[in-house]
Amino acid sequence: MDKQPEQNAHLSRRELLKSTAAAGVVLAAGIEGIAAAPAADNPIHKENAKPGTRDWLLTKTDITANEPVELGRSPRIEGYCSETSVSASETLKIMVSTNPVSEFDLEIYRTGYYEGMGGRFMKKFASVQGKTQADPEIGENRLRECQWEASVEFEIPQDWLSGVYLGKLTAKKGSVQSYVIFIVRDDRPCDLLFQCSDTTWQAYNSWPTYEWSLYHNDANGYTGYKKRKKWSTDANDTGWVSFDRPYANYCQDHLVKNPKSVGSGEFLLWEFPMSYWIEQQGYDVSYISNLDTHRQLPRLQRTKGFISVGHDEYWTREMYDNAMAASEAGVNFAFLCGNSVWGVVPLRPSAQGQAQRVMRREGNFLGEELNKVLHKRRGTKPKYPAGPNAALLMGGLTAGIGGGDWTCTVPDHWLYQSTGMKQGDTIQGLVGWEWHGAPARELPGLEVVAEGPMMPKNKQYRPHAATIYKGPKDNIVFNAGTIWWAQGLSSPPGHVLPAHNHAKPQGPDKRVQRMMSNVFDRFIK
Fold it and tell me: Whole-model pTM above 0.85?
């Protein structure tokens, strides 16, 4: 991501009027929350009472922690799905390549709590004949777009509950394994709506040879590691990336090394600790993809609380508009994330005509005024029009790279009820590796509930700031402002704690768990 300019204290009148309409009076410090126990008969509670298993975990992959990064894929067996999300009765195709040619098994698991097992077995396709499918040619603007034949095709059963599903691929030759991943969605009313950040997963997907993510370019290699010789006409002006390809191992392996997550995007790294904890607690939750936020506004307005988790960097303009409309209609929002709603990504069809399968980066969600500040500082001219100002939705903007401690600023606030935290108390390493700051104080009643300095010290970075404000229907917008928030909730099977030179989360913390309960119980009440 890019460094964040200082929040301009004088937004345009149009933006300020819009922000005023979208916000209300802040929640008063000291209001006592009423804990709402999750209903024992909701579908998530019933689902997690079913027997779980840890058989979903990979045991042998093509990748080890000591192999070079160029081997971030799983060539002996790898695959991808025809859709990011599907509903019951819809057909899903799974494209698989084996090299060398081998039969393979495909076992499908729903992820969740399941008495600590983390997954439940759903279906098996045994001894499927594999084939070696070609790596795609390099297309216009560095696009690598597979056009593989389907190896498995099936209809999603009616009794498959909404959730994140992993397909475990196992080659008969060599017993090498990798994942495919998809979401089962529904349209039922729910207390919490969990959005997976799969446009960001795809942006960082470097498949096939560790140089084809949205962050790679011909001039400088991976712009996240190599210093740019000069700024392009727009920050991180990029080529196109496609959903029609497998997920390689996470390309930012300086943050976390987890070879046994290959094929799962970033789900096991960032979203799964949140999902695991939510289902453990028995909250009524449904799951969607970023692309569902893009496609259908009604899917957002059926919930009491919308959740953005982890690393949710890339949004379309339609996603922003739909989220803002849901907030204005009274939906609560929890941005349990960092570096979020930052890059604008348009979507276009695949070469085969399937909608919303290819994307690229075109500017930032800064609003016109802050976009001018950014380009003036860099001595560049905007190539693309700015997206709307994300601070008007979230309460703040992405502010830096590194990390530090969560620092309590208003211990009497309902957020901290029953945490025991006092003014200035900290939770070590909870903020990172990217965070939100520059709180939008123009939003009437916005309150900063946590704020503290981050490392490394950089005059272009802003302190971390977690915020809460009320929307027009008395709904709550909570912005934790850290990618690592979920690391304080749980550490499920298959999960590896991330780290950065300047911060490292310490794992589950009762204070974080209690704050999360306080937020969700407010949503539900």
Answer: yes
